[in-house]
Input
Amino acid sequence: MLQKSADVVIVGGGVIGCATAFWLAKAGLRPLVLERDQLGCEASGEAAGMLAPQSEADQAGPFFELCLAGRSLFAALAEELKATTGIDIEHRQIGILIPFFRHSDQKVLLARAKWQGERGLAVETLDRREAIAAESLLSEKIEGAVSFPEEAHVNSRTLVMALAAAARRHGATFATGCPAAAVIRDRSKVTGIRTSAGPVSTPTVVLAAGPWSGVFAEALDVQIPVSPAKGELLLVAPEGRLPRRIVYSKHAYLIPTPRGEAILGTTMEFVGYDKRQTLAAMRTILTGVSALVPTIGRASLLRAWAGLRPFTPDELPLLGHCPSLEGLILATGHHRNGILLGPLTGRLVQELILGAPSSIPLKPFRPERPMPNSLDTPS
Ligand SMILES: Cc1cc2nc3c(=O)[nH]c(=O)nc-3n(C[C@H](O)[C@H](O)[C@H](O)COP(=O)(O)OP(=O)(O)OC[C@H]3O[C@@H](n4cnc5c(N)ncnc54)[C@H](O)[C@@H]3O)c2cc1C
Output
């Protein structure tokens, strides 16, 4: 039996929905999460799990600050979740190493290392000999590398489960296998939500339905420019050793897991909600990772899967009140960084709902900002 009312109803049981429930319940509210299937069954439970604000950042700015703040929450959160639920999210500050091969790559990476170093962030430039001494499995063809020692990794699936378990301990409730059908409104104000198991009255709905957020909002006449961006991953068992750090390039990455396996990624395709895995994607990933770590081709394949990132045309999340419908809050569109930004997003939504000053300026992420043409998706 579904409850008849809730302080806040959250649509979507991915990392954003579960983190939001966690922070709201900790503040003494009684949120209800509606998940149409199982918690973490989409991208959140299947993501690569990198916490990597620095590796691709070529300039400072609001999104970079958001991502750094997101990463800084994890060490304490991992301890809190372990203490509250017994679940280990496997947070490890293992660092990311980005090798370069050509002059053009080198120029970009050295410029990245320079501004981040000047900003006081941990970053180190290695020549060829130092890079291979640090990671002996790297290709002999590399010219050097840049190391970002504070970049980290978590187990995405256990992160979602731990956030949900902790939220429950603090008083949140979860209804799985229970799709939210539509928001119930009184003119321009939210009064409840209709679900497959009946209506729930609430003054506040948080939309955290990942790439389905736009579909859900269609009936509300609210434009939410979020669409699916498919990515594929492989899990492999190496024949011998693995690198100790994440090895990364703009084409591919290898993440050593605590179990001695490696996650290899990834691809980016705009093919709607199609999650089939293709041999072409596997070839792309294998080619990209082999250029970094040539021995990876001898690994055995354990699993291949695909997930859908919630893409927005400017690649920034949508965070804030929906201007045309009082009581609707958007927390979606985290694209490639939803694991990194999930816990912080939950805290920011808590601040919005409590009417507290935002710990991070949200203006750059406001849902009503102008967007580039959503058809101009990156290739
Ligand atoms: C291959 C790949 C690798 C990635 N690697 C990383 C990484 O290394 N680091 C990082 O930070 N991010 C990474 N990401 C991105 C990250 O996974 C996403 O940004 C994040 O999971 C989005 O979380 P979400 O909760 O918004 O969406 P989702 O995980 O999609 O969750 C939304 C949930 O809403 C539910 N839902 C939809 N409609 C309804 C409805 N009407 N009623 C009820 N429930 C509904 C869905 O079933 C789903 O469970 C990766 C993504 C992919 C695909």
